[in-house]
Amino acid sequence: MRIEQLEYIAAVTRLGSLRRAAEELHVSQPALSETVRNLERELGVDLLERKRSGAKISDEGRELLPHIMSVLDAVDRLRGAADDQHRISRMVRLGTVNTATVPLVIPTVREFRSSHPLTQVELVGAQQSRIHRGLLEGSFDLGLVNYLEGDDLPPGFETTELLRGRPVVCVRPDSPLAALETVDTDSLLAEPLVVMRSGYVMHRFLHRLLRGRAPAFSYSTDGAEMGKLMVAEGLGATVLPDFSVVGDPLERRGTITVRPLAEEATEVLLVLQRRHAGSVPRAVRDLQELFVRNAGAYRAVSGP
Length: 304
Known about the structure:
The chain is of the alpha/beta class.
C-alpha cells in the first residue's frame, strides 16, 4: 500500500470522476485507474463504483473512507512537522575555548547565518571541562577545545581535528620581543606576561615551558580574546597557538604580531567535538561541516 493510492481514492471521491481526479493530480487516467485497482486487489474490496457517467465511492469504500482520511491526515501532520523542523527558528549552542573564537568561528558563523537565517547560534566561551560537561548534558551541541600533542582524548565524544599549530609569542610590533627572530625563555621572562587562567590548555603549556620560573610581572585573564586586547594595549606579551592570532582582526591591522618560541616543537590541536548520538539535528550537522571546510580554507591561506 502506498500513500498515493489513498490520495487517488480521496480525489476521486471528492471530484466524482476518474478523469477530473487525474487532471488535478497531473497523472494519466489509465495510470490512476490502474493504481486504484491495485489497491482494491490488495484490500480485496471494490472501493469505487465505475459507471459511464463517472466514478463514485462504493458502499464498502465509504465504510473505509474515514480510515483512509485518517491516514492522509496523519501524513499531512508528519509532513508539516518535518517542514517545521527544517524551517523553525532553533538554537544551536556552541561551547568554545577562546583561542578559536575570531579567525575561525566568526567567519563560520557568518556563513552559517546566510544558509540558516532562522537558526540562532549561541556562542559560549568556557573552559574545556565545562564544554565537555555541557556536551554530555545536552546544553551544548558542539564544542571547540584545544589539546596539546600527546594528550588523551576523552571517551564519549566524536572528535574532528580542525587545526594544528604551534605556540607563539603574541606581542605589539613595538615590543622588544618583536625585534627577535625567535623568543627564548629568558627573553620571555624579562617582559610582563598575560597568562591564561588555570584550566586552559595554554596555562598548562606555559607552566611547562617556564618550569616553575616566574616572569617579571604577570596578568591573569580568562581567555585569549582579552589576552590579545591587553597585548594590543601594551600591557605585555602572551603565548597562544598561532591559529588564534594569525588572521585575527588585530593581527591584520598590524596592532599585534607573533614570534616563534625558540627550540619549542610542541603542537596545539583545535578540535570540534560532539556527543556520540544516533540522531543529530540538521543545523548542527551543517555547522559542523562548515567548520571542517573553513578550517581547511584557513590552513590553505595561513600555510603549514
